[in-house]
Amino acid sequence: MPNAPIPAKTALKSHRSTGRITLSDVARAAGVSPSTVSRALRGERAVDPALIERVQAVSDKLGYVPDPAARALASQRSNHVAILIPLLSNALFVDLLDSAQKTLRAGGYQTLMGVTHYDSSEEEQLLREQLLHRPAGLLVTGLDHNPATRKLMHSSQVPCVHLMDLPAAQREDAPYCVGFRQTDAGAAMTRHLLAQGRKRIAFAAAQLDPRVMQRLFGWRSALQEAGVYEPTLEFLNPAPSSLALGGILFEQIMQQRPAVDAVFFCNDDLAQGALMAALRLGVSVPAQVAIAGFNDLTGSDQMLPPLTTVRTPRARIGEAAAQMLLSLMRGETPPVPQLDLGFEIVQRQSS
Amino acid sequence: MPNAPIPAKTALKSHRSTGRITLSDVARAAGVSPSTVSRALRGERAVDPALIERVQAVSDKLGYVPDPAARALASQRSNHVAILIPLLSNALFVDLLDSAQKTLRAGGYQTLMGVTHYDSSEEEQLLREQLLHRPAGLLVTGLDHNPATRKLMHSSQVPCVHLMDLPAAQREDAPYCVGFRQTDAGAAMTRHLLAQGRKRIAFAAAQLDPRVMQRLFGWRSALQEAGVYEPTLEFLNPAPSSLALGGILFEQIMQQRPAVDAVFFCNDDLAQGALMAALRLGVSVPAQVAIAGFNDLTGSDQMLPPLTTVRTPRARIGEAAAQMLLSLMRGETPPVPQLDLGFEIVQRQSS
DNA sequence: CTGAAAGCGCTTACAG
DNA sequence: CTGAAAGCGCTTACAG
């Protein structure tokens, strides 16, 4: 039956029932096998250059786009990158997310974000959910995680880069990370204030996450070094950081310790609130008391007086960490596994 | 050969090569077919209640978790929800993202975010990428999209809810949306300022996205209504909104139009910057000039003087939109397809 | 209400 | 360097 109609099944094969253009469509049009198309398109070596070109052309002509779900199922690896950050209400982490996400997208990856609320068991739970998607990579804030989380990160074998923090010492088994030395930054700002002749420098902090505590340690060591450390000048509040809390802390400090001549806040939002409170209370800054912040958040340069602070390279951290992850996902070994991006003291008029 | 060793193939079958616990494992352990497990676990009707319970118990015991990629491939629908927002540098959208994401996660969905930078072709490109993941739902900011984007949203058949805006009139074909009437809010604040005796009220804006323009229209109509509209009192700058720009705009207005007795800024960051500039310039607020903002962003209540503004329910918008989407994804029809969450004038000391 | 079978669209040993 | 075949782990008509 040479003239029999083409069976429906064969006719349908040119497009699947979903109407989507598939690998097989490209293979048929290019006259090669699906396996070859798969290899050619992913730039796998061991494919004839001429074939690669032909397949590429056909693929472009048909407008073929690989199906991420099929790819993930077959390869056991998706094109998702999971990112874990503490909060979305702190501009610091939003900047981190923004820059990392931009870099990852340029590399062909989708970002899956998880907000931990500084809760280690929520972090663990989020990681579990994200690992179900078989992410190709992981970006996590900080180096402190509970044992279960660490185990998950390790046993999943997913490449992982830590953000913001660096391990205390250069160890053999140190994880990949991009950040700066929080302790050094805390000490540097404290020394800066000392160098300006301040003698009674208070440290005021909220949230009290690990990085804040490191800044506190930096402040302590700089004061001890100068021989003027006084434990009662620590004002620590575990509540979330905010302008309002900064104002409250400042008022409290002025009331309890009127002789204080500088306050170093662990984050700019607190310091901005303190600056507003000083205006309200008629406390003159920096004549009576200097005020310093941390992170150089948006608005700090617009305060009255403009805020002295530590500028932290969060956008560059997000980008560099994403780049490092990208190279890890390519199977490469980053030349600098612990990348220190430093910080900068920005002196403005509040000190 | 009754005592022959169990063939390797059968022995292996209890776990796949990946080591993952699969649907088939649960089926075997529960003594039913994979199809039944699939139906029982997804709560599909037409399964014996007793079986559901048994399957559920076995599944829990084995710690089975469905594979999202396999599920997406087979059903042509993932558990992703894509969200499109203009910027991450505006706290407004971060709040929206945060609340939507929280609600969606509680409903079992992963959020895929896309940042459009107020660029309609970038929005289109992002949507294309996201649609590849076959999202179960879509959350998009605003009602204005280019024709290609609208076509994609429509032809993809993916349930979609729009954020922040409401259509001008109640039409039959109106899209699902959750927001408030930007024009009304702009008019309400203007009337509020008029009611306080202000006569020459300027409108200062940045970014100039559609919602800002609606606020401008509201300001215009309220002034026209009062017979005091003057076109030269519009100060529009397409640059991104920021504290610094607010200061610049304010200074410019004071210089060019010293008789102005109130400035209504389209966003709180501009207004905050203006407040700081007023302090710097020695312009007394509200005695000489009233200042009003929009959105009641963080810090506005800490300014000197505290900022009069329009409080917008962005967290509730994100949550309600996610809820509406959740019900659409369940195949339900939302009782209120266009949900108006309103706004509130917050009078503080700057007016 | 339940099951066998096909299929979703890829990747990847395994041969050649 | 290339291809045929199996398999990733589910869902869903189709029968019964």
TrEMBL record, chains A, B:
It comes from the Bacteria. Keywords: DNA-binding, Transcription, Transcription regulation. SMART domains: HTH_LACI (SM00354). Residues 21-75 form the HTH lacI-type domain. One of its GO terms (molecular function) is DNA-binding transcription factor activity. InterPro entries: Cro/C1-type_HTH (IPR001387), HTH_LacI (IPR000843), LacI/GalR-like_sensor (IPR046335), Lambda_DNA-bd_dom_sf (IPR010982), Peripla_BP_I (IPR028082). Residues 21-65 form the HTH cro/C1-type domain. Gene3D superfamilies: 3.40.50.2300, lambda repressor-like DNA-binding domains (1.10.260.40). PANTHER family: HTH-TYPE TRANSCRIPTIONAL REGULATOR GNTR, LACI-RELATED TRANSCRIPTIONAL REPRESSOR. This is LacI family transcriptional regulator. It comes from Limnohabitans planktonicus II-D5.
